[in-house]
Amino acid sequence: xxxxxxxxxxxxxxxxxxxxxxxxxxxxxxxxxxxRKKKERLPAGADERDRAKFAKAQSYMVLLDDKAACKNLRxxxxxxxxxxxxxxxx
Length: 90
Ligand SMILES: [Zn+2]
Known about the structure:
The structure is a single chain. By secondary structure, the protein is mostly beta strands. It has one helix at 48-56, and strands spanning 7-19, 26-38, 60-63, 67-69, 78-80, 87-89. The strands form 2 sheets. The protein has a 4-stranded antiparallel sheet, with no helix packed on it. The chain has a two-stranded antiparallel sheet with strand order 4-5. The longest helix has 9 residues, at 48-56. The two termini are 23 Å apart. The relative contact order is 0.28. Zinc ion binds next to loops.
């Protein structure tokens, strides 16, 4: 069973403060996340292994964006998002 079956997925946005590496402007960006919330119970068709893995599973979210477009109108360059944890447990 795919581990994704343990979770219900939903999108979320969270604000993060980022620094543009080109113009050094700091601004707040709304980053897109995918929230994987652990289901109340295992889906039908689960075997022993699924049960063990499901017991240890935790809700978490993964960062979908890997780039941001600078909000400084004189710059507007795309830069890699760094300094933001790309997964977080809920
Ligand atoms: Zn910039």
